[in-house]
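Anyone? Bumping this.
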Amino acid sequence: MKDWNENLKAVSRRHFLFESAAGIGAAALGTLLGSCSTKRSALEIAIDPMAPRSPHFPGKAKSVIYLHMAGAPSQLELFDFKPELQKLHDKPCPPSLLEGKRFAFIRGTPKMLGPQAKFQQHGDSGAWISDNLPHLSTLSDEISFLKCVSTDQFNHSPAQLLVHCGSPRLGRPSMGSWVTYGLGTENNNLPGFVVLTSGGKTPDAGKSVWGSGFLPSVYQGVQCRSEGEPVLYLNDANGVNRDLKKKMIDAINTVNQAQYEESGDPETLTRIHQYELAYRMQISVPKVMNINDEPDYIHQLYGTVPGTSSFANNCLLARKMVEQGVRFVQLFDWGWDTHGTDADGALDIGLRNKCREVDRATSALLLDLKQRGLLDQTLVVWGGEFGRTPMQENRENKLNPFFGRDHHTEAFTIWMAGGGIKKGVTYGETDEIGYYPVNGKVSLHDVQATILNRLGFDHEKLTYQYQGRPFRLTDVEGKVINEIII
Amino acid sequence: MQRITVFSVVLLSAILAGCQWQPKKVDFSTQIKPLINKNCITCHGGVKRNSNFSLLFHQDALDTAESGSPAIIPGDPDHSEMIRRLSLEDPEERMPFKKERLTKAEISLLRQWIKEGANWGDHWAYVPPVAIEIPEGEKVSGFSSDNTSAKNGIDYFIHKKLKEENLEPSSSASPAMLARRVYLDLIGMPPTMGQLDSYLNDKSPDAYDHLVDTLLASPRFGEKWASWWLDMARYSDTKGYERDVYRNIWRYRDWVIKAFNEDKPFDRFTIEQLAGDLLVNPSDDQMIATAFHRNTMNNDEGGTEDEEFRVAAVIDRVNTTMEVWQSTTMACVQCHSHPYDPFRHEDYYKLMAFFNDTRDEDTHGEHPKLRIYREDDEKKLESIREWVKNLSGEGKAEEVNRLLKTIEPKYHPHDFDSFINGELIDTKFLGIRNGGSARLKNIDLTGKAYLLINHSTKARNGSFEIRTDQLSGEVIASGRLDTTKGWSRTVMSIALKPTSGKHDLYFVFHNIKAKGENPVSDIEWFAFREDFFKGDANLDNEFITLLNKEVDNTPIMIENPPRQHRTTAVFERGNWLVKSAKVSPSVPKSLNPFPDGAPLNRLGLAQWLVASSNPLTSRTVVNRVWEQFFGAGLVETLEDFGTQGSVPSHPELLDWLSLRLMNDHHWSLKKLMKDIVISSTYRQDSKIDKEKLEKDPANKWLSRGARVRLSAEQVRDQALAVSGLLSNKMYGPGVMPYQPDGVWQSVYSAAKWQKSIGEDQFRRAVYTFQKRTSPYPSMITFDGSSREVCQVRRIRTNTPLQSLVTLNDPVYQEASIALAKRMLKSGKLLDDQIRTGYQLALLEDVSSRKLDALRNLYNEAINSYAENKKLKESLNKEGSIEEAAMTIVAAAILNLDETLTKS
């Protein structure tokens, strides 16, 4: 990756451009309204850091849709069925589970809390899924479940950073940035790394979870929005329509071309190209963000309502994006922090509502990708930033008014489906109350290594030289989870 | 030089280098260290020491390895295991293990090195610069149109390299180009046409000199350079992490602006920021300077342990200090010895020990803070201080002063344990219910007469008592808890029964009226104080009144008093929960010694950084200042001077400037900058011809002037300046210019982007409100820092999203509208109007080709608006079609490559 890395710096870009600088302006201008050619010249790669690149080996997946349930959904009410926990319901937690442990909110001796959902086995794989997710239950044979993902962060913000940036502290690039840095994008008219949020809030760790850290800022996630401008500053300014905008860009670029001939700086040619790209983006982004023209059966499948902002809409948008060649689509849905301090945070009220909001749409996304033949090349990941305790939360050492669980780091469930993932596999098993892993424990770095592997990367080799050393997403850890990959 | 047996490879390289027939000794730093870093260090370095053999330090390399003998025997390559293992055929035994073998030439070089004694060389950056003579011997010409010689030392060094690289310098830039460049570089904005004219009309030989002096004296100077420093200081108006709420720390930003404007010498600048609180009788300004290290993040998320994030902040301070002043990356030494550079694992924690003994503890209230009283209250404080001084001496007066100015030392709710019927509310405030209790351990009560308590409660008749050593222990204090209104809090003073020695204190709370599970009160902090006023009730009253004043404040650094001293231990593999050996403060052995007589605290550390024997500080600052002018540092990796960083392009120049900064300029950055901008090197034309592009694409050898895109701040400031909208208002809380709706959606925060009114919309970018988890979008698009962690280098990118900002952001449209009005007023003829617009932005005459393009755009816009009245009205309802069309031309001018570029 080193050469590529160097390419990013204006240094070699300038050098490169010189080689065939003559005529580039005209060539670039010529593509202004032309179609997007699939094969780019080396020159175009040099001026365009987002141009497609080959990974270390042929990847099984071409793009990723990562569905993050921000706040951390309870594995014990969704996937990790623990009948023994029901028997312990309302009994005081044995001291052995508490000794030497740090919790966010549990204090003193909490009570055990039985599962607040009904479970059944589904499909040929016999995966346990609760009645909170009736639609997803029908797709159990498409999915690989990781039941023993562990983390060492029990606060939302650092835990989300660890999931997406490989470190609980700020300053590192996010997964989508690494992927676009490594692969570029297949559609230059759209951002390579798109972020869609629902639930009314950005995730706890803010925009840092899609930041580019020390990578060039061109690799940061671009937030696309269902309300307001689809991308910030995408709409033409007042008094400017498409036609006038094109004339403006033509004039700007004519002056820039003259400037290039005077000053000889290849960077000017790059700018000419960027203005053309911006013009095209203004057309293609609203198009991909518009779901009005989707057929009725698609809206019924997802439960989408055009003109609103919802997780369902975002799932449909994610499908449209990967269809258009976006590399990494990151969805965050906020509102999964079920402590039991209020009805919204109750396992038997708030969690059920959140499940209703996402179950149909998530399942629709898998089905829709499948029917379009895209599931095989699209890796779909679903999960939170940690799990929830088998104990009932007793914040400030008093019983919470609703059934809720505290943050839990030892074991929680993440599932993957699609691009290069085995179908109907459950990997990892927790103890009989869902507290510790018994076997198949994996770390978040393992999950990241697996995602990168499916895209064709050796996670130890996808590095960026910074502060005198090569950095990578998986820090100094990470092992590909071979048990769930094809 | 000692004559040695000539090995073919050395000989060959000697010939190739064009040297005379006197082979050089192998140089460790340039020839051996890179080989080691590339092939050996991963397994035999600071992280792994396979077979107990490491090549990180000289001593380690010569030590007995696992085999029982050393791998390197100086002078004897034939018996050195290292050479044997490199030369083997068997891949199971050959080194590098299971990797491509070294070439014969590389092995020969290593043999030769061992034969010559396996001498260790020091990496350039760790050897202090030595006095260098300016290479004046040769005639330096070609730098300027009149072919005069070099302007100062810089030019000689640059010229020497140019000759070696077979490059010719460029002639001088046109006066207008040079003026725009030096304005942008020194004050961050282009000149007005009037300013340009007065420069052009100044026919004195030192007109340029005068211009430079004027710019250095401009208040705008500090604003420009503050932007540069604030990235490193990770200055932000919010705390970071989940809640990311407001932090009132803008006075630090203003301190930086003022420090640059008054040209505070860099050594003072350093000492005040790192240790202003430890100076004798520090002024408020010196205390505010210490907010440099209060710019670390603070985690308010519910359920977070303050100690974890206090430690995270301290770690950030170690890393930031070393990065900002030493261009050294210490982050990896947190977990193990540095993989490449001479820093040991313990070094990290010894450095950390300097920073680990401060009062700030990741509390929600961001204590300690400097309380900034109104003038009349400040006078009262002063009279209380005087009174105590007269009665009990300076020491007690300082204690009173510190309590009133900072409320330190104090205790926080997280210092309590053994909770009964109560807990920390939101893991922040002490909330004990009726009859419940909590313990504060090991408090020295000797001499303490009162307890200060900051609390808030709505329930009447709450009370508490303090018992010593056990729940049923002696009551040494009891008191009622006053009710408070709304969100307000109150500070109460409760008398303590005189008690000596250290005790565990049990705080027991009562209020039968506290409903259900409501705590009796919620308490933010406690402090113990002496009887300063010896029974003078008036003074006591005044003291409490002052403590209860709602005042503005700024987070600052304060050292722990002895009774709250914190020890530092090495964290095993960087894990803060697993502590091993205790360490005390000291600096890495591989750098300069700690200054004689300096205190072993942050003040001493700051003095060590600016000691003339420190090899890194002055080079670091010279390199970064240089980068601001030329677009790249003399060492390209601004953040890393280690062995993995870039090597200096002009090592002698770097050292010459570093010594000049310390010895001749006494750390004056303005004088350093003047050296730079006065040089002929700086004043060259930036035009790039084919030859220069071929030989020096990145302009590393500086055969032409710099040509780089403007910074995020400059892009905004320039648009506002050129259009005449810019406000010159300085200082104060962050402002909120236009930002699209719905950008801020932080969890658990009701904070909103409230668009500023009046001139505050048009302030310079340095005053824009900085929110860490949601940075001002247009700034971040132009590679601005999100200010989460220290950033010493912005990598410039060129993206379509940047074009969208300057084309569509209403901020830029407003600038275009204003610029268009100026253009229309400037003359009657269309061409003159366009010419003016171009000149306002670029300070030069527009060429006919460019004028044609812009005139053409104007005519097309006229046609569009004539056909489409609605379109015109959406731009301006009242204005003319001409004005609307001119706005489009103005927008185009603000979007030109040359406008966005410093050339």
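Late reply, but here is one note on the structure posted above: Confidence is low (pLDDT under 50) at residues 1-46 of chain A.
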